[in-house]
Design brief:
- The structure holds two protein chains of two kinds.
- By secondary structure, chain A is α/β, with parallel strands linked by helices.
- Chain A has twelve helices and 19 strands.
- In chain A, helix 2 crosses helix 3 and helix 10 crosses helix 11.
- The relative contact order of chain A is 0.20.
- By secondary structure, chain B is mainly α.
- In chain B, helix 6 packs parallel to helix 11.
- Classes of the chains: A alpha/beta, B mainly alpha.
- At the A-B interface, helix 5 of A face helix 1 and helix 4 of B.
């Protein structure tokens, strides 16, 4: 019998498995996906938000605990737990040497992400390289890894873990860490959570999933059914506007279209619906998924002219191109009259200013509703480009309630051998909103805690010193 | 059958398609020079594809790290796409152009060249002496083949190879000239070429072979091969000096400079290619372009044979088998020389040219001002 079973195969699961193994436990990791799709959403990540008090290898200046906490408080609007959040923040300042020991390599922030050079440590080669390194290390340490092994349910007795059931197999262990992701890939569940809107639409039918197809939420559902304490709102998710041509799953980072603040966004009725220049794009990109989800047909169209080309990260799919606004409307399937009217109205409202995409400049509209408050240049220089955008879900926030020891709760009482990490509990720290790299900070912190605690639970509760 | 031109276009179009996706991701930018060079561009025409393809060292790091690698529907496999274009570089920029077609069946070409080289020298041997065996001649090669004849034959073959490689590189350079070469750019490119910097994975742990694990063995074996080749070449140069400047014709004693250089180089050229072949046979199935394996392995085998026959000749030069071994060695070397501009060897010139282009290009201010994402 294994000491510890880890359910899941992404960053949090691997951190847990490695920590438990280092603490002396024998570990079996059950990954739902085949080997080539291993790693869950972690394969699409690229960095870790890190607290640090002085410049480090790839991190500039300092990012002290309180500033990190303030940022988290701001993006969540208070939907967080200060004690758990500060735990994550402190852990983020000490975990990188351990990550390096397991083969993770860091690099300075990527070109075009200078705004993250102080706060985020980038993985060399991205999240899949990190995942590969952890799996190699797991192999070296003798952790048993099984792919194609989705866990359908856990056998519990009075809140104690007894066995995991995968396929026709029942596998017992002394302790268990659940790190099997959210439910964002489960179309039915997301559909049900978002429900029907006032137009009679099921908005979630038009959502794309930016990450893995394997986050079906099976284990999360099983835990809810077995009475585990839950935290978070099922409609809350990290949701970005992505190119409508993106694949249903695993579109990852490239399907984002970073041109929104350089042009205008219109809906299916060819009307604008939100201030495209409200703030810097890195601070606003994560609101546009939800904004588009609220529009009819859950679709939006980003319209730019040729002056914007070369000013934003190149898109993965080329824009629809036309020499006149009229023709562009035709190609996008929008009502030509309304579209041209919307654009003319916008162009006429643009006040002269000095365009500068690196500051909140003075190019804005006047007398327009909704306004565009920065970077408002008339869209007049052909060719014109249009990108159809849909809501793209990164991950869901509904999860299991937990504590500083990553324990799962049943009716207010903690389990002594069942632990949770990663997306399955991220909602404890991140009730809503998002800031780059914090998902990996939570996954790494709670993965490591859960692994340590699970090993301790098999050894009479004695927690080894931090590896 | 698709036409040749369509095949070429499709290899370049595939690099263009993949770079469009990579350019929106950029996670790999620290692995090597390909990705920073990519990030300076928004579109990838044929010239860009050839440049980036030859900058790629086929280390495999970006394939294993790729969230869009097969079975993902984006099917990103940069090392493979680049390898396919490199093949087209060799075909298109070979001089004279008509001989570029030799890359289409390169394994066959090397085999035929070796057969012809061996036949030529065996025939010369039989014509001059009437027998393959002879009483020991104390290592006096020129008793078999006159020195003047060898100088003329190998001088012509080598001169042709240098000329053809040079003209190929010039044409490749002109395809997309990055501007004037500066001293620092030249030094940097030389350093990267001689040190094989981009086989270190960007973190110094090496490249990928059979899995996502990193190893420095390809770099080590390549160094043995390359520097072994250089030492053998240096041995020949020193021997030429001895012959003409010091009027000391071969054979040279075992402790002489030419023999020491040749032996050392020969060992490198034995171990290096053997190691490269061993790695090549174990490469991950998605690495590189499988259609080019005959070209890769044929060239490796020819290098190995060159060294093996050379060392055998040295070992047995005082016996009655010297003439036979000499003919075999010279035939092999002739096959190697005559195919230098039409074998895998040509990768060295295009790779070096691409490294120099990058060293120049990266010193210039970027033309793009991409907003932060």
């Amino acid at each position: 019998m294994y000491d510890v079973i880890v359910v899941g195969g992404g960053n949090a699961a691997l951190c847990a498995a490695l920590m438990a193994r280092e603490a002396g436990a024998s570990v079996l990791l059950l990954e739902a996906s085949p080997r080539e799709w291993r790693g869950g959403n972690s394969q699409h990540t690229r960095n870790l938000r890190c607290m640090h008090d002085a410049p480090q290898d790839v991190l500039m200046d300092a990012y002290p605990e309180d500033e990190f906490w303030e940022d988290l408080l701001k993006v969540t609007g208070g939907a967080t737990s200060e004690s758990l959040a500060r735990l994550v923040i402190r852990e983020s300042s000490v975990c990188r040497p351990w990550m390096r020991r397991h083969g993770v390599r860091f690099q300075p922030s990527l070109a075009g992400t200078l705004h993250l050079s102080r706060t985020n440590a980038f993985f060399m080669g991205g999240g899949k390289a990190l995942i590969n390194a952890y799996y190699r290390s797991a192999g070296n340490l003798g952790i048993a890894v099984r792919y194609d092994s989705p866990v359908e349910r856990l056998e519990l007795a009075d809140g104690r873990f007894i066995a995991a059931v995968t396929g026709n197999e029942r596998i017992e262990a002394k302790a268990c860490v659940m790190a099997a992701g959210g439910f964002e890939s489960n179309r039915e569940w997301v559909r049900e959570a978002w429900g029907q809107n006032e137009r009679g639409e099921w908005p979630a039918d038009n959502f794309l999933v930016r990450g893995t197809r394997f986050n079906q939420g099976v284990l999360l559902r099983d835990m809810i059914d077995q009475g585990a304490d839950v935290i978070g709102d099922p409609t809350q998710a990290h949701c970005v506007a992505v190119d409508a041509r993106a694949p249903l799953y695993d579109g990852g980072i490239v399907t984002r279209v970073d041109a929104v603040s350089l042009g205008v966004m219109v809906n299916r009725e060819a009307r604008r619906f939100y201030d495209e220049g409200e703030d810097f794009w890195p601070k606003r990109y994560a609101i546009w998924g939800r904004l588009v989800a609220l529009q009819p047909g859950q679709i939006g169209y980003c319209i730019i002219d040729s002056r914007a080309i070369g000013r934003f990260m190149p898109p993965v799919f080329p824009g629809i191109e036309a020499d006149t606004l009229d023709a562009l409307a035709g190609l996008l399937g929008l009502d030509k009259g309304t579209f041209v009217h919307t654009l003319n109205e916008y162009n006429a409202a643009c006040r002269p200013g000095t365009f500068d995409h690196t500051v909140l400049d003075d190019c804005r509209t006047e007398g327009l509703s909704p306004p565009k408050t920065h970077w408002a240049l008339p869209i007049v220089k052909p060719p014109f480009y249009g990108f159809a955008l849909r809501p793209g879900i990164t991950f869901t926030y509904l999860g299991l309630k937990t504590d500083e020891q990553a324990r799962v709760y049943f009716k207010g009482s903690p389990s002594d051998n069942l632990f949770v990490a990663g997306e399955m509990m991220a909602g404890n720290v991140l009730g809503k909103g998002y800031t780059a790299g914090v998902g990996m900070s939570i996954g790494t912190a709670f993965g490591r805690i859960a692994g340590r605690q699970a090993a301790a639970a098999t050894q009479g509760g004695k927690v080894h010193a931090d590896a | 059958m698709p036409t040749l031109e369509a095949l070429v276009r499709s290899a370049e179009a595939e690099v263009s398609r993949q770079m469009q996706i990579c350019n929106a991701c950029r996670y790999c930018e620290s692995f090597c020079a390909v990705f920073p060079a990519m990030a300076r561009r928004l579109e990838f025409g044929a010239a860009d594809a050839h440049y980036l393809a030859n900058l790629c060292h086929n280390c495999g790091a970006c394939l294993h790290a790729c969230q869009y690698a097969p079975p993902h529907e984006f099917a990103i496999n940069v090392p493979q796409a680049m390898a396919a274009v490199r093949q087209e570089t060799y075909v298109e920029y070979a001089w004279p152009s008509s001989l570029g077609a030799l890359y289409r069946r390169n394994g066959l070409v090397l085999a035929v060249a070796t057969a012809l080289g061996l036949s030529l020298f065996l025939a010369l041997l039989l014509a001059s002496r009437g027998t393959l065996w002879h009483p020991p001649l104390a290592g006096n090669f020129y008793a078999i083949f006159p020195h003047g004849l060898l100088v003329w034959m190998f001088g012509a073959a080598f001169g042709w190879a240098v000329l053809a490689l040079f003209l190929g590189a010039v044409r490749f350079w002109r395809l997309q000239s990055p501007g004037p070469t500066t001293r620092s750019a030249g030094l940097e490119a030389t350093r990267h070429a001689l040190a094989l910097t981009y086989l270190d994975g960007g973190h110094g742990e090496g490249c990928n072979e059979s899995s996502d694990r990193f190893t420095l063995w390809r770099r080590r074996f390549h160094h043995l091969t390359f520097y072994g080749f250089l030492l053998c070449f240096a041995s020949t140069c020193v021997a030429t000096l001895y012959h003409y400047a010091l009027a000391e014709p071969a054979p040279y004693p075992v402790t002489s400079v030419p023999v020491l250089l040749g032996t050392l180089g020969g060992v490198g050229l034995l171990v290096g290619p053997a190691g490269l072949l061993w790695l090549n046979l174990r490469r991950h199935p998605l690495h590189g372009d499988p259609r080019q394996r005959p070209m890769d392995r044929g060239f490796i085998a020819l290098l190995f044979l060159t060294s093996l026959t050379g060392l055998a000749l040295l070992a047995l030069r005082d016996t009655g088998a010297m003439a036979l071994l000499l003919a075999v060695h010279l035939g092999t070397v002739m096959a190697l020389f005559i195919t230098l501009p039409y074998s895998k060897f040509a990768h060295a010139t295009y790779r070096t040219a691409a490294l120099l282009k990058w060293a120049i290009e990266r010193r210039q201010p970027g033309r793009l001002q991409l907003g932060a994402d």
